[in-house]
């Protein structure tokens, strides 16, 4: 794509993130931007929905577009008063941007009503991993199950209860085009929400004989195509490097493993596997891919093909892409990449 050369990413930090504990942050997993003021940004580091060692840095806020950052951890503590610094996801209320939620690895969900200046726990479970909204309801994946809230995260109820052997990790939703709400579990099961209840849709393929310690069927990230909600992609903690990409074109009922075919080189020569996935909010059926490796942000046409052609969307000067967030920005996407 001739326009690729014109796409540039700018590093905005924060750098040297630390909570005072070891290990310090080596990655950013969580991000939120104020919809009413694009200069107000939030980031946090944790484990995300992966299997790696956690990063411990708490939450940071910038009021100047990333030029400077401030740690905001007041009240973000466990029951003994220790800072709950392993944060997997952030969510900002689009109607009330001063309200912010943090999903933590060990103490559930925290809420702030003053732009993160102070926090209080609103659902104390063990792990909380991700947030999404569907039909005016907020959902969160936790070790207790999928939680739902109708008041911006102030109160929560269990919408889908975790089993004794698996709990939900990744979740995504599309509100247009008929809509879809889809989640994945540590057991590789895909569940969908329709008609007021959750149903088991299907299960990701899993090969326990990969020769890689830690390989599991757990769903790492999941993304629903905004242009066609029956098309779903999911990365899983399985495969050669515990990071496989899978596709479904029937709403999550059946799945195929996707092995991208690059034009001049093998997929794994660029990295350890698919780690971050996010659909474009502007270009129909475009799925962005970030690898656990150096080089670039990639893109493919999400048609369910097992060997799609993958092209470079933009060059990056970073390694280990943890997450990608996309927002509509005129004729193209505004992309934020966490490393």
Q: What this model shows, in words?
A:
- By secondary structure, the protein is mostly beta strands.
- It has no helices and 26 strands.
- Strands 1-2-3-4 form a 4-stranded antiparallel sheet, with no helix packed on it. A 4-stranded antiparallel sheet has the order 5-6-7-8, with no helix packed on it.
Whole-number mean pLDDT: 87
Oligomer: single chain
Helix content: under 10%
Number of strands: 26
Work out the helix count: 0
Overall spatial form: globular
Low-confidence stretches: none
Roughly how many Å apart are the termini? 24 Å
Spatial sequence of strands, sheet with the most strands: 1-2-3-4
Structural class, from secondary structure content? mainly beta
The largest sheet, given as strand count, sense and whether it forms a barrel, is: 4 strands, antiparallel
Radius of gyration: 19 Å
Strand and helix order: EEEEEEEEEEEEEEEEEEEEEEEEEE
β-sheet strand percentage: 35-45%
Question: Main attributes?
Answer:
4-stranded antiparallel β-sheet, globular, 339 residues, mainly beta
Q: How are the elements arranged and paired?
A:
Elements: E1 30-33, E2 41-44, E3 59-62, E4 70-71, E5 87-92, E6 100-104, E7 109-112, E8 120-123, E9 128-134, E10 137-142, E11 145-149, E12 157-161, E13 168-174, E14 180-185, E15 189-194, E16 197-203, E17 219-224, E18 232-236, E19 244-248, E20 256-258, E21 274-279, E22 286-291, E23 296-301, E24 311-315, E25 323-329, E26 332-338
Antiparallel strand pairs: 1-2, 2-3, 3-4, 5-6, 6-7, 7-8, 9-10, 10-11, 11-12, 13-14, 14-15, 15-16, 17-18, 18-19, 19-20, 21-22, 22-23, 23-24, 25-26
